[in-house]
Write a structure and sequence with these properties.
Mean pLDDT: 84
Distance between the termini: 25 Å
Strand content: 25-35%
Helix content: 10-25%
Oligomer: single chain
Radius of gyration: 11 Å
Strand order of the largest sheet: 2-1-3-4-5
Order of helices and strands: EEHEEE
Largest sheet: 5 strands, antiparallel
Number of strands: 5
């Protein structure tokens, strides 16, 4: 299960990553905002923030 949000909208849930990506596709990214984003609900890991794919091997701080 995936969750996605775009600027000005509450997060919505999707059954797969492809559907979540389609939901945020084409959404503008505005300065000072972290949306659009997609995260895996099961692992609580953000996969896409501000329309950019997040590296999964990055060191968390």
């Amino acid at each position: 299960m995936f969750e996605a949000a775009k600027l000005g909208a509450a997060p919505e849930q999707f059954p797969n990553l492809e559907a979540a990506i389609r939901y945020i596709a084409g959404t503008a990214t505005h300065a000072g905002e972290v949306r659009p984003w997609v995260r895996n609900v099961d692992t609580k890991v953000f996969l896409i923030i501000g329309g950019r794919v997040q590296p999964q091997n990055a060191v968390r701080q």
